[in-house]
Records
---
Amino acid sequence: MTTVLVTGGAGFIGSHFVRCALHKHPGWRIVNLDKLTYAGNRSNLKDIEGDPATSSRHRFVHGDIADENLVDSLFAEEKFDYALNFAAETHVDRSIGDPGAFILTDVYGTYVLLEAAKKHNLSRFVQISTDEVYGSIEEGSFTEESALNPRNPYSASKAGADRLAYSYFATYGLDVIVTRASNNYGPFQYPEKLIPLFVTNALEDKPLPLYGDGMNVRDWLHVEDHCAALDFVLLNGGAGEVYNIGGGNERTNAEITRLILETLGKPDSLIRHVEDRKGHDRRYSVSTEKLLTLGWSPTHQFEQGIVETIRWYESNRAWWEPIKSGEYKEYYRKMYDERIRTSKGQAQ
Ligand code: NAD
Ligand code: DAU
């Protein structure tokens, strides 16, 4: 049996990875270490935990990656073969208001995991970084060799973790791989991020707060493609290497917004052009040549995947309604109420 540590496995991407990996690798046992912050949700794993074929190979541990004693004893007890670090504070807007939590989890937490990995001779450590570490690019695409230029506290903390992980390879010879993926979409994404926020607001006939002119560009990657790429680089990648993972689906936020409204049959009058995000990166774009050459490419078609995703939120109100009716209400009030009140109204 191969024992794999997944951190942040109750979050959006981590829970998909746990599901995909347990189904794909019957010889794997996954230990899922998650702090269950506002973004962690055990119900993301309900199917895994309710199915004897997977539940017997999944151990959930409620804890913090920045807790040295817990992490060290877990490594000693479980003798992990591999670790994939998904755990992070992940929302750019929250990082603008409260950077401290991002430094503690994304940087210090990664350090704690790397120390344990070094001490316990882990075979491979995958650090889930992000394309945001490169910063914004007006034209062309960043390669793995491009300089890093993170421009908000979230991406800066991720860049710190990204290079810290690499330093454990360069300095101590720990087998580390760093991945930098583009924006993920799919089921179970916390409704603070663009797509689930706008889909669920539209379903509730609430305004869609589009930042600035709505012309910022993101490259959308289906979450299952991201997880397949992580599985692929874990098993086929080179030690010390960085891999970009992109979907090849660049869209403006205004295009995504209209697609959501059209799919749900809701009016454009729900769109509000609100005050822009501070330091808002204009465009993200990564070259995925390196991963293509190694032998992996995405399989989900965006036009189909996005409609399926929108329909998933439409059919799974029982997943997001409790989230949006809890402490989330206070977050939403602080983040959006004033912006929407002073907004310029519908997009032109
Ligand atoms: P998410 O916010 O949905 O989930 C994060 C998970 O980490 C939650 O379950 C949370 O409880 C857990 N967590 C937070 N702090 C923790 C701590 N101190 N100890 C243990 N667990 C903790 O995030 P996501 O969107 O699934 O992102 C997962 C990873 O992928 C992150 O590292 C993120 O930077 C990276 N990433 C995300 C995207 C994207 O589009 N969402 C793209 C590229 C990279
Ligand atoms: O690129 C990868 C990154 O993608 C990940 O590393 C991050 O964890 C993830 O949160 C995501 O960051 P973004 O800032 O790109 O995602 P977000 O969904 O917050 O915003 C996407 C775009 O939509 C961005 O240009 C801001 C805009 N936006 C977002 C929200 C929440 C709006 O216009 N209105 C909104 O209310």
---
Amino acid sequence: MNYDYKNFASEYGTPLYIYDKSKIESNYKKLKSAFEDHYSHFSIHYAVKANPNPAVIKVLGDMGSGVDCSSPGELEHALRAGISPDKVLYTGNYESPDDLSRVIKNDIKINFDDLNSFKRMIKLGKPKRVSFRINPGIGKGSHEAVVTGGTDAKFGIPYEKAFEAYEFAKENGVEKFGIHMMTGSNNLEPFFFAEAVEKLLTIGGEIFNRLDIAPDYVDIGGGFGIPYHPEDTPLDVNLMAKLICEKFKAGVAKYKLGNPELLVEPGRYLVGNAGVLLASVTGLKESYRNFVGIDAGMNTLARPSLYGAIHQVEFPYKKNSETKVMSVCGQVCENADILAHNIHLPVDIEEGDLMILRDAGAYGFAMSSVYNGRPRPAEVLVDGESSKLIRRRELIEDLFNYYC
Ligand code: LLP
């Protein structure tokens, strides 16, 4: 995706998140057909946390996607984007009574993070269907902060305790069931997914057989990675889906689980490579290192400072092949505010030049903040030749909305 960035900068200003509708659509189609080639009772529930802009949710909703939400705020974003409540999943953790009452009010499917979550829920009302998030004992992610399964994870029910949870729910009159896991984010390794699915089917299969339950659905979470670095090997989604479906179908047959729906909850895979962050150079400095300062920083895109994440940097209007080693930083008063460390950049960069950071569609704006009193950027959705503002730039005035 290459746009007329000068035009975007003059029309909408910088920093600016730009998302491409057709890229989101093609990501969705690719993932859907990869799974449906092997198992037709399948659906995608977009993880809203990756990019909650209602216009982005709507692109996926119009394709037939459901959603996964982790908070009442995300749930409200999905409902306002027009997603019907029967296509919404709720996967929170340490859910408060208020969180749970919103789930009941909207009558949506929930993956409980713990038996205690279910116990809190039944004080408010009995859910029609119960699914527990299981920690299958393994996890994998591109950074330790995004590993969400295994012995260090705060999520889910240890598999050794899962039987007790389902037994309790059944004894309390629940008749419909599902099972869930989410073991980590940004995985590029197809075999890991299949290994985790095999574990989940074994854990679930034994529980469901002992309790004489046929689950409505098996939700294997998201976590499908994208290559951020040119040397990353892209995830082979066709191979991954094939391996997952083989393990899934084998488990379903072995434990005679009927015809459960297979659900996935991808966030990054659907929107990550559909977004770029456009920024302007605000200052150049030759210090102990050479710095290019831009008007976007850890407040705009937190991933590099939080996880050491890589986002490819490009200067679309600099054709000079001569480069020097520079670091790209924002304007925040923290030394962690570096978006790219010691990379080769054109020697002739000047103040005012436009720069882009690639693959910023997931966990970009969603994790931005107003730290250091910098209002958050605008967001634009490109649809073919046209573009539209889908969130206006915040103003300094907006920072005063909440003070009493
Ligand atoms: N489902 C659940 C329950 C989740 O917790 C997550 C992500 C997803 C689905 C979607 O995962 P994905 O397909 O996007 O990997 N901020 C981090 C990523 C944190 C992911 C947390 N959970 C980052 O910028 O890399």
